[in-house]
Amino acid sequence: AMLRLRLLTWDVKDTLLRLRQPVGQIYAAEARAQGLQVQPEALGRSFREVYGAQGRRFPNYGHGQGLSSRQWWLDVVKQSFRLSGVQDEAALTKLAEKLYRDYCSSSTWELLPGAAETLSRCRQLGFRMGVVSNFDRRLEAILSNCNLRHHFEFVLTSEAAGFAKPDGRIFEQALRLGGARPEQAAHIGDDYSRDYRAARAAGMHSFLLRAAGQAEGPEVPPEHVLPTLSQLLTRIEK
């Protein structure tokens, strides 16, 4: 059956863009530039622990709890280094501010295979396009710096929406912004619960980017799975 789609919404991290290096390596390189020796593996473990705890304590970048997303991130970076043994507060502040800025740079990110071509083709086919991402206010700058922003009519972050995926209200906002009913829209992302299942719960179509060799998650109908982004067009043009 032909899907009568008007609107495509996109996750960003690990769907269109991915970090060029693991977080631990990025942080360790910045520490080295400031004369500090910290092991990338230790930093990576510290970061995952701190990021998880911060997200539980202050969900969605502390939205509604009086934190700015910038402060939320500066705290995460500093605590990750503290947990890895860096005690110098002046160094911690400098590291955190530098890494917060660098995260917007195109040198931090790379496009996933097929991303640019697929987005261009979808626009040529006349789809309206938007981003729905659990991300902070830096996403606009990241997309611009990676030369992707022009593909999208809107960029809806969880920080701006006030809700994070899998909350259906972020998808409702996206549908309003894109001027489409749920059944006229499809969401593309790499996370089973936050992207695939959440969009379907909101009444939309959705496709799960699941690279070959990725740990198999829950069962998804094969026609909803994208081994690469380039497969999207064959799925929606049927």
UniProtKB/TrEMBL annotation:
Pfam families in alphabetical order: Hydrolase (PF00702)
Among InterPro entries, the record links this protein to: HAD-like_hydrolase_domain (IPR051828), HAD-like_sf (IPR036412), HAD-SF_hydro_IA (IPR006439), HAD-SF_hydro_IA_REG-2-like (IPR011949), HAD-SF_hydro_IA_REG-2-like_cap (IPR044924), HAD_sf (IPR023214)
Alphabetical list of SUPFAM superfamilies matching this protein: HAD-like
Q: Which domain of life is it from?
A: Eukaryota
GO CC annotation: what is one?
A: nucleus
Indicate the family of this protein.
Answer: Belongs to the HAD-like hydrolase superfamily.
| Name by which UniProt lists this protein | Haloacid dehalogenase-like hydrolase domain-containing protein 3
Per UniProt, what is the name of the gene that codes for the protein in this document? Hdhd3
